[in-house]
Amino acid sequence: MRRADPELLGVIGHPIAHSLSPAIHAAAARAEGRRFAYHAFDVEPAALAAAIGGLVVLGARGVNVTVPHKVAAAALVDRLEPEARATRSVNTITIEDDGTLTGATSDVEGVLTSVRDDLGLEVGGLRVVVVGAGGAARATVYALLQAGAASVGILARDVARAAELARSLGGSVVTAHDDGAAADLVVQATSVGMAGGPDPAGSAVPDWLLDRAGAVLDLVYRPSVTPLLEAARRRGLPAANGLTMLAAQARGSYRRWFGDAPSLSVFVGAAREAAAEG
Ligand SMILES: NC(=O)c1ccc[n+]([C@@H]2O[C@H](COP(=O)([O-])OP(=O)(O)OC[C@H]3O[C@@H](n4cnc5c(N)ncnc54)[C@H](OP(=O)(O)O)[C@@H]3O)[C@@H](O)[C@H]2O)c1
């Protein structure tokens, strides 16, 4: 296939206007002196396959895929990396030289990077409770179990969805006031607390769980301090938002497209700057 010149990349989502990914990848390209164009594409679910097919025809290098397309994208690629196959989620598509598509999820390395760098925690032996049962929760449960967490509990308003997650990836369902739910770390993986989300002023982590938490990671990154993070900090708990995860998953995508990537600090710096600009 003939590649677009300069190289063409982007992120497909719906909505997508507030994505920080174009700014993050532009900063990485500058740091490496690499030339490419990275666009945000607003694509409705019914048009996802056509959009990806169009990018192949245009000679794009690859594309990020975000809400609500991550699961659908997994069915549209020719090959899945093991993490994407296990989590049934694709956030990175690489268009190979022969036009075939490889799907990956860099959310897995993203969440592990944040636990290590933001909170200074070793995952091995950690008791974790993940709140939520959507795509980000799936990546988180998989990542933590693969990295050797001692236990991963799943707390979600939809208990059947939590049970399905536990059945397919491991971990166990946690229900309200579950005394067994000790949590060295609580990972908030719902869209509650997110600006523009279903409940921006709320928190999906109940007080009884926060009472027994050793640290909190909220995967939401907009706003930078969510109601949950405020509550965690009031209790003196180590707490972080989803910005480092966002930066680390962007670096994982970049590496898949170009074989190498600038240091994580370039991506984190760009993510912070883009988030501050709103
Ligand atoms: N930092 C990063 O790099 C990164 C990466 C991925 C995602 N995220 C963030 O993680 C969050 C979830 O993303 P996702 O891709 O997992 O979305 P998703 O697949 O749509 O899942 C959303 C989850 O939130 C739950 N939820 C929604 N409204 C709720 C409410 N009012 N009360 C309780 N639970 C509620 C859903 O429960 P039901 O199943 O019952 O609807 C579901 O479990 C988003 O805020 C996203 O920005 C961050």
Automatic annotation (TrEMBL):
Reactions this protein catalyses: shikimate + NADP(+) = 3-dehydroshikimate + NADPH + H(+)
Q: Does the keyword Cell cycle apply?
A: no
Entries under SUPFAM superfamilies matching the protein:
Aminoacid dehydrogenase-like, N-terminal domain, NAD(P)-binding Rossmann-fold domains
The name this protein goes by in its record: Shikimate dehydrogenase (NADP(+))
Q: Which InterPro entries match?
A: Aminoacid_DH-like_N_sf, NAD(P)-bd_dom_sf, Shikimate_DH, Shikimate_DH-bd_N, Shikimate_DH_fam, Shikm_DH/Glu-tRNA_Rdtase
Q: Which residues form the active site?
A: 70
Coiled coil regions in record:
none
Report domain Shikimate dehydrogenase substrate binding N-terminal positions: 11-93
* Job description of the protein: Involved in the biosynthesis of the chorismate, which leads to the biosynthesis of aromatic amino acids. Catalyzes the reversible NADPH linked reduction of 3-dehydroshikimate (DHSA) to yield shikimate (SA).
Give the quaternary structure: Homodimer.
Per the record, the similarity remark reads:
Belongs to the shikimate dehydrogenase family.
Binding of shikimate, residues = 19-21, 66, 91, 107, 221, 249
What organism is recorded for this protein?
A: Acidimicrobium ferrooxidans (strain DSM 10331 / JCM 15462 / NBRC 103882 / ICP)
Q: Which gene encodes it?
A: aroE
Chain positions recorded as NADP(+) binding sites: 132-136, 219, 242
